[in-house]
């Protein structure tokens, strides 16, 4: 069976975006107040800071200006996108929990209303995104990945695991899957014709083959792969997002490899692909 393609049909993207907002909101509303202060795997961010980040980005997409707050020098702020994120987190840091959750709910409703008024041509219009200028529908697919990933940050911190088999989860996985071509071809010593199989439990397995200097994502073919990486969906997405490293997981059973152990380790050491 051919490897799944990432769909940018504006109706499908809209559906996944709305579902990701609603799932995130439902999780946040289910938390105890103390849980919102739990530390997450995002450096310096508690669960409530993750909520503030999601609010901030959606507010920005509604046309609101980024808050003018003074940022301290911090190693986890690595670029302009990171600086933008931190400004919203700081601006909302003093809101009490009730006000923060209310603001999240209001923001989600505003974004759903704005989305419902958009035409197909609006979704096709190019504009700014964290990955460069792309059609709005492409940017919103990335938003699904971001929201779903941050929902997982909170789930991991509060031990409320779940939402791994929904349409937003699948879109997020495909967003991550197709970055592996770059990782294998550009961040490792893989040579022309080399291939790496990714055997992801509870998700679609795939291989990356190096061809003409590029990593081509194909159907999984373990028999012809130089090495195979075996893990589960949740762990793969944590690795992709840079929330954990292969070194931190070494010695456990969440990730393993077969075949060329050097190449497999290079992939795992360079797998993080988020901004």
TrEMBL record:
Q: Which residues form the Mycothiol-dependent maleylpyruvate isomerase metal-binding domain?
A: 19-155
Domain (SCP2): residue spans on this chain: 192-267
Mind listing the GO molecular function terms for this protein? metal ion binding
SUPFAM superfamilies the record matches = DinB/YfiT-like putative metalloenzymes (SSF109854), SCP-like (SSF55718)
Q: Which InterPro entries match?
A: DinB/YfiT-like (IPR034660), Maleyloyr_isom (IPR017517), MDMPI_metal-binding (IPR024344), SCP2_sterol-bd_dom (IPR003033), SCP2_sterol-bd_dom_sf (IPR036527)
Write down what this protein is called.
Answer: TIGR03083 family protein
What is the source species? Ferrithrix thermotolerans DSM 19514
Task: Give the organism's phylogenetic lineage.
Answer: Bacteria, Bacillati, Actinomycetota, Acidimicrobiia, Acidimicrobiales
């Amino acid at each position: 069976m051919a490897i799944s393609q990432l769909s940018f049909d504006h109706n499908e993207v809209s559906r996944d975006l709305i579902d990701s907002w609603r799932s995130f909101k439902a999780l946040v509303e289910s938390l105890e107040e103390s849980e919102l202060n739990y530390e997450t795997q995002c450096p310096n961010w508690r669960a409530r800071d993750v909520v503030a980040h999601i609010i901030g980005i959606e507010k920005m997409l509604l046309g609101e200006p980024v808050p003018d707050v003074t940022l301290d020098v911090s190693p986890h702020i690595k670029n302009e996108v990171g600086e933008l994120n931190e400004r919203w987190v700081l601006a909302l840091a003093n809101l009490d929990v009730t006000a923060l959750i209310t603001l999240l709910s209001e923001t989600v409703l505003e974004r759903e209303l704005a989305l419902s008024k958009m035409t197909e041509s609006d979704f096709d219009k190019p504009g700014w995104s964290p990955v460069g200028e792309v059609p709005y529908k492409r940017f919103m697919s990335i938003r699904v990945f971001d929201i779903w990933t941050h929902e997982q940050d909170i789930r991991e911190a509060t031990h409320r695991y779940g939402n791994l088999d929904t349409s937003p989860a699948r879109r997020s996985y495909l967003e991550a899957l197709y970055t592996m071509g770059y990782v294998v071809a550009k961040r490792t010593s893989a040579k022309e014709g080399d291939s790496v199989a990714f055997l992801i439990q509870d998700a679609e397995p795939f291989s990356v083959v190096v061809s003409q200097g590029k990593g081509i994502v194909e159907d999984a073919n373990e028999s012809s792969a130089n090495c195979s990486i075996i893990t589960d969906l949740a762990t793969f997405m944590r690795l992709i997002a840079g929330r954990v490293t292969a070194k931190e997981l070494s010695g456990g059973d969440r990730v393993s490899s077969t075949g060329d152990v050097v190449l497999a380790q290079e992939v795992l050491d360079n797998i993080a692909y988020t901004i």
